[in-house]
Prior knowledge:
The complex is a heterodimer of chains A (about 130) and B (about 300).
Chain A: H1 17-31, E1 37-45, E2 48-57, E3 63-73, E4 79-83, E5 90-94, H2 97-108, H3 111-123
Antiparallel strand pairs in A: 1-2, 2-3, 3-4, 4-5
Chain B: E1 2-8, H1 18-41, E2 46-50, H2 56-64, E3 87-91, E4 98-104, E5 107-112, E6 121-127, H3 136-157, E7 162-167, H4 175-178, E8 185-186, H5 189-192, E9 196-199, E10 202-205, E11 207-208, E12 236-237, E13 248-249, E14 252-256, E15 269-271, E16 298-302
Parallel strand pairs in B: 1-2, 6-7, 8-11
Antiparallel strand pairs in B: 1-16, 2-3, 4-5, 5-6, 7-14, 9-10, 12-13, 15-16
Helix pairs in contact in B: 1-2
Amino acid sequence: MPDLLPDDFGTETVTPPVTILREQAEHLSRRTGGLVLGRVTTAQRGDKFVQQFVLEVPSLDNYAYQLFTVQHTIILYPAELRHGVAGVTLLTTTKDPEEFQNALRDFFALPEVRKIVAALKAQAVPAGAPA
Amino acid sequence: MLTFFFWNMGGEGHKRSPDEVKTEAAREQRLLAVLRNVAESRDVDVVMLAECPVSAARVLEELNRGSTRPQSMWFRDTDATSMCERVLIFPRFPARFLTKRSEGARYTGRLLKLPDPRPSLNLFVVHFGSKQHKSEASQTLAAPVFSQTVRELEKKSKHDRTILVGDFNMNPFEDGIVGAEGLNAAMTRHVVQKESRTVDGKPYPFFYNPMWSFFGDSTHAAHPPSSPAHEPPGTCYYPAGESRWHYWNIFDQVLLRPSLLPYFNNSDLEIVTGDGETRLIDGNGLPARVTLSDHLPILFRLNV
């Protein structure tokens, strides 16, 4: 049977949302001195991928808070950022990695998000410190 | 025995005019009185509220007002550090036995660890997005994410004695509740005793959904709306609508993992219609939405 596949599948040059999210999760962990960790998990339903961006506090028995989710199909973009930190569910649809990063930047700058991270950091206990 | 009570109290009413302010104040007072009466008369251990129109402090004061129990059995304040502002939980035991473990804007996941010999439980209390603001497709898509969150907490807790309770804003038959990738909640013990099912090579653990039993009006001839034993066919009723319309919905539900079934009797679950003094339904058996709430509460017990 001959090989019917193309010579080259090409290389996807578009940065997937999950890569950007994981990088931001690492930044967050570093910026909080490890007191609040960022973690990205993936769920799938049919043809949709849903990434969850979760804040985790190791010193609070790994208390976890889901900050937002990102949904996209296998094509990666458009990617939809969805959150409820402002009291209502808000949706931002982004068509490429640049728009996605801008949306994330705007999201992380929200007063509600800063408040959540600050609150978790305040409750977290540095390793070695009395509880 | 642990008794749980969940109520979507219908949110804050309009207060644009002095008359509306007065009406709403009276409604709030009625809601609190019903809450106190039910909590006291039914020996509720955990009160869980969504869309509470008054402050947590006021609820706590009312719950303990006139209590004849020892102070050690009074309701405790809700966890002020909880990130989920949509739900309030008032336990009748110290807060350290109900610790928050996993939260989001629309749910709070707690570890309920009472002293031995009681088994510890995972308790998720939810208030998911309503159909007014979310399409059915959106609601369905959120379910797998939440389902994964539940499983992650179960992995951390090292057990699956999990209760999901609250206003799901979905009926028991909707995709987000029954779908394998959603909550995979089935209507009979016989089905869920297998603990999981495999779809496309992937295992999905079951939840048991006892709420299915409330659909229909098979008991209404024997127990009409005027009867204290009346069983409403749902937790909220919406008249009119589109061509495909259920009128009655069971948005407020409790789902249990199969591991909890030995501790649960279906006769210990009810949609509450009154507190012994005030009826939460009108003469037609519909929720008294104007004077109280458009949702009826649910109450259930676990023999733990």
